Amino acid sequence: MFRRATLFHFFGFPVKADASWVFLSVLLMWTLSTKIFPYSLPKLDLQTYQIMGFAALVGIFVSIIAHEVAHAVIAEYYHMPIESITLFIFGGVAEMRGDPSHPKGEFLMAIAGPVMSGLMGLFFWAAAELYQLYFRPGPTTEVLIYLGNINLLIAVFNMVPAFPLDGGRALRAVIWKMKNNLVLATRIASNLGAAFAYGLMAYACYKVVWWNQLGAAFWWGMLGYFVLAAGSYAVKQTENRSLLGAETVSRFMHDQIVPVSPDLVLNDLVENFVSKHYQRVYPVVDRGQLVGVITLQSLLSMDRSKWLWLHVSSVMEPVTADNTVSSSYNAAEALDLMQRHQRDQLLIADDGKFMGAVALRDLAAFLSITKKIDYNKPVVHSK
Distance between CA atoms of 367 and 372, rounded to whole angstroms? Predict the structure, then answer.
């Protein structure tokens, strides 16, 4: 998984990018300045093509942000919180916390992005026409026309009814409304998405065998794989949230977790606790109140000479909403929290009093067993 960096906040949403977006940006810049613009507007110097390529890249960046912000604004309006907008190798995605709240919100959120892309396409086309009324057609016109075309292409492609594309999400919302079952709707939409993905992969093979176009085949094949993998992941996540949605973490709580004092020296922690109890995580409790957590991973990453004089309080992770929940916390949300922050377990505390911990492996075991017993009848909470 690529590391993500927050670029800025827009309309209150954090906009992030991972390393694959940097790769895509370089590739796009090179393709635009050496292939696309020299073909559509020949006999210009290299610097002009590079400026055109950079301008088009900025326009694409703005267009993708606008597309995802449209999703995010509608999602927030229908009380479907957006975690962030992330740019990656295939464009962008508005990452939502949990499942959509109801079919109408899902449908409107899904089509908001393509509608915005369509409007952006018309805007760039209109800007190109307006520019030509006052100036001679040239590099600026060519960039504006290209941005108009690419936005309309994004709008059309995203409306293909293949989950997890926007059209597939809209289709899922319709099926969800008809069947009153989000999990079933996700499975049906994902199956259609899988068929589309295999079609893209087959087209990639056709490009290689009949046309020997390895570059184009690679991108079509990668896009097909992404649609297939993302759809499969969405089905799994929806099933997990459905099955865990009626449970609280108290059902999975372990209360035999040994706490430690914040005044404990790290060397004593290792000799008297780690060597005897074999816990990966130790809650730090002071006068009955949970004040922090120290992990075996953070302990082992330190210089061992510091173990002789450093105290637990100086290296512990403070209690936050990312590592501690109440006993009434929803189990599905706890699973999302652990996956989002790559944690093996969460501590449980009520009014500051340490109660126990919930482990990722226990939630995973519950899901595995429940799916085997009653796979076709998951608990569904629709609105």
Answer: 9
**248-282 pLDDT tens trace:** 999 999 988 999 999 999 999 989 998 888 888 89
Residues 140-145: contacts with CB under 8 Å, at least 24 apart: 142/37, 142/40, 142/41, 142/52, 143/37, 143/52, 143/55, 143/56, 143/59
What's the whole-model pTM score?
0.81
Mean pLDDT of the chain: 90
By mean pLDDT, which of 248-262, 296-310, 357-371 is the weakest? Answer: 296-310
Count of residues making up the chain: 383
Quick one: pLDDT at residue 361? 93
| Pairwise CA distance, residues 158 & 153, whole Å | 8
Distance CA 188, CA 185 (A): 5
Q: Which two tokens stand for residue 194?
A: 């899988």
Report strand pairing: 82-88 vs 91-96: antiparallel
CB 170 within 8 Å of CB 155: no
CA atoms within 13 A on the CB side of 164: 20
Please answer whether residues 255 and 241 qualify as being in contact, where contact means their C-beta atoms are separated by less than 8 angstroms: no
Please say whether the beta carbons of 147 and 124 come within 8 A. yes
Rounded Cα distance between 357 and 334, Å, is 11
Q: Per-residue pLDDT tens for 219-253?
A: 899 999 999 999 998 888 888 888 898 899 999 99
Cα 271 vs. chain centroid, distance in angstroms? 41
N-term to C-term CA, the chain: 34
Cβ contacts of 230 within 8 Å, gap of 6 or more: 164
The b-or-e profile of 37-72 (16+ CB within 10 A means b, else e) is bbeebeeeeeeebbbbbbbbbebbbebbbbbbbbbb
Q: What is the sign, positive or negative, of the torsion defined by CA atoms of 149, 150, 151, 153?
A: positive
Handedness of CA 41, 47, 51, 54 (dihedral sign): positive
* pLDDT for position 374: 60
